[in-house]
Design a protein that fits this description.
This protein is α+β, with helices and mostly antiparallel strands. It contains five helices and eight strands; from the N terminus they run H-H-E-E-E-E-H-E-H-E-E-H-E. Strands 1-2-4-5-8 form a five-stranded mixed beta sheet. A three-stranded antiparallel beta sheet has the order 3-7-6.
């Protein structure tokens, strides 16, 4: 990548070739940075109110719906509006109910360090995936005025590795390998 290239490759990989079916192409450093900036504050918000945490970022590249998710704590029904061109998932470590209080800074730091961030372009969510039970589902589309929602079948996605091409690295940290 040159210094003029403002896109970042998926985590742990070089830039994906243009022929790749799935890649993090189109994800700019600005998008990645803005989503990663929410990892720390959502570590606490997703513990206190797991089904209410989330936002929409209005960026030059388009709107990005951001939802934190904690397996075992967050409701599986959480979804993004299908009006959005991008969906971001902040995946924290599995959390059992009830949440243990007080929530320590050490716990939040560990959750933040273990979090994974994914950015998905809207075009990967399909009605066909919904009918088949695949990973990236576009549900309840009626028409352009009622576009439905984007939902990820997280139960199966991990086993199939479907999320991996969309994982993004934190542009705020330096890799010192």
């Amino acid at each position: 990548m040159t210094h003029h290239d403002h896109s970042i490759p998926p985590a742990g990989r070089r830039a994906a070739p243009s022929t790749a079916k799935r890649s993090a192409r189109g994800v700019t450093v600005n998008m990645a940075r803005r989503v990663w900036d929410l990892v720390d504050p959502y570590a606490l918000a997703s513990l206190l109110s797991p089904d209410d945490a989330g936002t929409v970022l209005d960026l030059h590249e388009g709107q990005v719906g951001v939802l934190p998710f904690r397996p075992g704590l967050t409701a599986n029904a959480r979804a993004w509006s299908a009006r959005l061109p991008w969906a971001a998932l902040i995946l924290y470590p599995a959390t059992r109910e009830p949440v243990q209080y007080p929530i320590t800074e050490h716990r939040l730091a560990a959750d933040t360090a273990a979090a994974k961030v994914y950015l998905f372009p809207a075009h990967i969510f399909t009605e066909r995936a919904w009918r088949k039970g695949d990973t990236f589902q576009h549900i309840d589309y009626l028409n352009d005025n009622q576009p439905g929602v984007f939902w990820i079948n997280l139960d199966d996605a991990s086993t199939r590795g479907d999320l991996n091409p969309y994982e993004i690295t934190n542009p705020n940290t330096t890799n010192r390998t």
